Amino acid sequence: MATPTKKVIIDTDPGIDDAIALCYAMAHPELEIVALTTIFGNVDTKLATDNAARLCHLMQTSIPVAAGAKTPLSINPNPHSYFVHGDNGFGNIRIPDGTPSVVDDSAADTIVRLIMSNPGQITLVAVGPLTNLALALRQEPEIAARVESVVIMGGVFDKPGNVTPFAEANVWNDPHAAKEVLQADWPLTVLGLDVTHQVSFSREFFDNLAAGNPVAGSFLHDAAEYYIDFYEEKSNFSGCCPHDQLALTFVTNPQWFECESAALDVVTTGEEIGRTIRAHDNQGSAKRIGKQVNADQLRQDYLATLSGC
Ligand code: BDR
Ligand code: CA
Questions:
Q1: Which CATH number does the domain housing residue 261 bear?
Q2: Pocket mutation for ligand 1, best pick of 42, 163, 193 (most atoms within 8 Å of C-beta)
Q3: Distance 42 CA to ligand 2 centre (A)
Q4: Which domain holds residue 216?
Q5: Mean pLDDT along residues 84-96
Q6: Which residues lie closer than 8 Å to 29 by C-beta, 6 or more apart?
Q7: Per-residue confidence at 16, pLDDT binned at 50, 70, 90?
Q8: I need a surface site. Which of 17, 50, 96, 178 has the fewest CB within 10 A?
Q9: How many domains does the chain contain in total?
Q10: Does 80 participate in catalysis according to the annotation?
Q11: Confidence of residue 173 (pLDDT cuts 50, 70, 90)
């Protein structure tokens, strides 16, 4: 097996599409996951932490899991998305508890410690609300200069949102944190609904996944039933959208994405709260915004990665 060449921290709220992304990351030979940090969003932070540990157990890997913030920085918490991800976050499919790899340090402490002690080496991937990243930046602003890169699944720029006409869920769940994170001076790429909605995983895709990987693939196949039912009942989408996977595919295969460059802002009050926008007058450091992705290559690579582990 190849030696891992990229150290990643994944901040996550598992969540079915989080589980899809985490199984890929754990299976990928180039990635070394140095910590999972958890956040409320799809589920509460306690369940997100337990689910992250369960996925480590499923994938037979031991990764430190650090629990994160339980509430957003400023707004009252929004309801969790149990109607999308099931009562247990995994479409009501049960998997065994993880071995106790949960650490005492908070998510923000863990992010700061790992980035500061591995300068230029850590890719920070966030696929949930951005509270932990904002807290880490407040605690140690120097992480912005020490991180290798930051990849975020969140926001939407040129299409309607998925929780309001303006906002995507991860940003809407903590718009103040998102504003701090998207405006920090660090090398950041944001992959929003503009690009994540270009990819669907069909029922047939999950059949192939289960055939190629009877343990993790079968779990994802079963969990995805609930998620696909949600998509097909509530929208014209066929199959489901593996939002969070795009952030992991961007880490392993950035050449499959087209991006534009712009300074960013987030609306934090009023009817448009949680809306991500290009900053007026382009003030602030430029970030990359995902515009296009090669969906076929992403799907093929996903199946090959899970089948090969
Ligand atoms: C994002 O919100 C969550 O529901 C998903 O896990 C994903 O991170 C999509 O808007
Ligand atoms: Ca997520």
A1: 3.90.245.10
A2: 42
A3: 7
A4: 6-307
A5: 92
A6: 1, 2, 4, 308
A7: very high
A8: 96
A9: 1
A10: no
A11: very high
pLDDT attached to residue 99? 74
First to last CA, the chain: 9
In this predicted structure, what is the pLDDT of residue 100?
65
* Domain assignment present for 33: yes
For 222-262, the pLDDT digits (tens) are: 999 999 999 988 887 789 999 999 999 999 999 999 999 99
Query: DSSP letter string over 29-83?
Result: TTEEEEEEEE-SSSS-HHHHHHHHHHHHHHTT----EE---SS-SSSPPPPP-HH
Q: Is residue 29 part of a domain?
A: yes
Question: What stretches of 45-179 adopt beta strand conformation (E)?
Answer: 65-66, 122-126, 149-153
Which pTM does this prediction carry? Answer: 0.97
Specify the pLDDT at position 96: 84
162 CA → ligand 2 middle, Å: 13
Q: Is residue 254 situated within a structural domain?
A: yes
On whether residue 129 sits in a domain, the answer given is yes
Angle at 286 between CA 180 and CA 130, to 5 degrees: 25
pLDDT mean over 94-112: 88
Q: Which residues approach ligand 1 with their CB closer than 6 A?
A: 15, 17-18, 41-42, 81, 127-128, 153, 162, 168-170, 243-244
